[in-house]
């Protein structure tokens, strides 16, 4: 096998109470990439469609993660990467993670899978760091492993696969506005009230338990974020209206996807997820902000060969 | 049935990363109580052995929780309570919780179980509040439900039963010193660094996952407390030495039981738990502080009829 085409999925990081540790993977939204072995040594990005991104590997997220893996192997050939980008950079649903994951997943397949998924995450972190200026894995992990993941720690890298209940669907709205990651970060307090932290970890512990037991009521009761949402939601126009409409339409919970501006809602069943989509559409249609929407099952497989 | 004898177990609250929400139940340490229906209406404490505690129901933890339940029922008889106290008050292994739970559990049995365990917890909270000056359920819940419990919230009262891996054993040392609950509380900061809070909830999420999957390595990697232990451990003489010795002897993790002074260590298997006991004994034998030690399986049943 000298060439493969892969699907690298969008992901939702943070997931309300799981700030900085939890994430899940989408099914219907993602990039496509072609990875090809070439006689010419090194990493070469040969095509980029969808968005205007740099071709220099060391300036491109997919290129940086590919280079990180390439440095760890000893081969007399190189790789070409074609990127068909569907996930808009800066949308808050793991655009850079999809790029970072896609190249290393594809290369690993062509090499005969010398690396496990945690090792692939470690390479991909280097690419993610180019985009977000810090090393984190909360989008990379669900993109690689699929389903829900908990990044227990970065050093050493420990990723846990949390079960994903069958009927869980997600509705995403991506308002076409820009939130600078630096601003989303700067708005967070350095210290938080101990009582709020306790409420947050009670909810995260409960959510992990609820995912293990497929307890949708408990998922609903756990999807609260008392730490980050009060700050970051102020950066997203009409956030509270969207959340109110989504919950009224039957969503189990609604929160900020990554650092925004996308907003995710989890629902039990496709029908509910579609009702939530309609309810949110109504809210945003009354504004003059352009937006995209997606409804997706949770993708338990993660990045895959097409 | 007019009279029953019950065993009301000791419990460990907080469990390192689960501060204020997590707890588990002991098997080999606990109080015994006799609950008896009487023609005389009201709650009457007729015998207390082991420790010097008040007989007036409204001044006695078991009495206060019994009164809370008694007010919620309409019967033309009363209850007598005999308390055979084995758990020393103030030891940090749920002495007041055992008393508070025992009376309402026993009364509920004699009444034909009109109340579920969450409702019993709500009555017992009133008794616990007498002892600890605040309403909390992190010892009550494991005493009533057995195994590991997560108190997701107090209002409304939501208690989750987390699976307990079969081979999990606990070693407890109770140094015979007094730590005032007020002091243990005052020493905690009102605010904590966001990064520490994230580390704590990553560990708690991981611990819940590890308990569900019986992953002892992950239990070991999750039993860390970056928030409370650095403060409260300073109140317990030789805490760091005990912890170091326990971990060296094979404990999966060591932490403060409740607000101390007791220290718990979790181990895989009875043999390991006994080795941990020996190692800790060596440390404390070199001091002039009296101490008790217990080794126990996790008690998945909780309070029970003898």
From TrEMBL, chains A, B:
It catalyses: L-homoserine + ATP = O-phospho-L-homoserine + ADP + H(+). It is an enzyme of class 2 (transferase). One of its GO terms (molecular function) is homoserine kinase activity. Residues 208-285 form the GHMP kinase C-terminal domain. The keyword Nucleotide-binding applies. Gene3D superfamilies: 3.30.230.10, GHMP kinase, C-terminal domain (3.30.70.890). It holds the Pfam family GHMP_kinases_N. InterPro entries: GHMP_kinase_C_dom (IPR013750), GHMP_kinase_C_sf (IPR036554), GHMP_kinase_N_dom (IPR006204), Homoserine_kinase (IPR000870), Ribosomal_Su5_D2-typ_SF (IPR020568), Ribsml_uS5_D2-typ_fold_subgr (IPR014721). Keywords: Amino-acid biosynthesis, ATP-binding, Cytoplasm, Kinase, Nucleotide-binding, Threonine biosynthesis, Transferase. Pathway: Amino-acid biosynthesis; L-threonine biosynthesis; L-threonine from L-aspartate: step 4/5. It is found in: Cytoplasm. The keyword Acetylation does not apply. Its EC number is 2.7.1.39. Residues 68-147 form the GHMP kinase N-terminal domain. Belongs to the GHMP kinase family. Homoserine kinase subfamily. Catalyzes the ATP-dependent phosphorylation of L-homoserine to L-homoserine phosphate. PANTHER family: HOMOSERINE KINASE, HOMOSERINE/4-DIPHOSPHOCYTIDYL-2-C-METHYL-D-ERYTHRITOL KINASE. This is Homoserine kinase. The lineage of its organism: Bacteria, Pseudomonadati, Bacteroidota, Flavobacteriia, Flavobacteriales.
């Amino acid at each position: 096998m000298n060439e493969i085409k892969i699907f690298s999925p969008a992901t939702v990081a943070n997931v309300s109470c799981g700030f900085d540790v939890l994430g899940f993977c989408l099914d219907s939204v993602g990039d496509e990439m072609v990875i090809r072995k070439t006689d010419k040594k090194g990493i070469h990005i040969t095509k980029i469609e969808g968005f205007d991104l740099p071709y220099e590997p060391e300036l491109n997220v997919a290129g940086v993660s590919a280079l990180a893996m390439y440095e760890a192997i000893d081969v007399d050939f190189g790789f070409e990467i074609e990127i068909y980008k569907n996930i808009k950079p800066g949308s808050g649903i793991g655009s850079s993670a999809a790029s970072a994951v896609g190249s290393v997943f594809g290369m690993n397949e062509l090499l005969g899978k010398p690396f496990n998924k945690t090792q692939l995450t470690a390479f991909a972190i280097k690419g993610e760091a180019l985009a977000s200026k810090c090393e984190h894995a909360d989008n990379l992990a669900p993109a690689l492993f699929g389903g829900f993941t908990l990044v227990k720690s970065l050093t050493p890298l420990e990723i846990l696969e949390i079960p994903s209940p069958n009927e869980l669907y997600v509705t995403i709205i991506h308002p076409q506005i820009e939130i600078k990651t630096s601003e989303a970060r700067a708005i967070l307090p350095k210290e938080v009230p101990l009582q709020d932290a306790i409420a947050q970890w009670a909810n995260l512990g409960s959510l992990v338990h609820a995912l293990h037991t497929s307890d949708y009521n408990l998922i609903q009761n756990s999807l609260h974020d008392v730490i980050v949402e009060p700050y970051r939601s102020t950066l997203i126009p009409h956030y509270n209206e969207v959340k109110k409409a989504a919950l009224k339409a039957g969503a189990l919970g609604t929160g900020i996807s990554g650092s925004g501006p996308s907003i995710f809602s989890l629902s039990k069943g496709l029908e509910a997820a579609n009702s939530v989509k309609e309810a949110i559409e109504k809210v945003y249609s009354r504004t003059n902000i352009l937006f995209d929407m997606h409804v997706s099952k949770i993708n338990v497989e993660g990045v895959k060969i097409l």
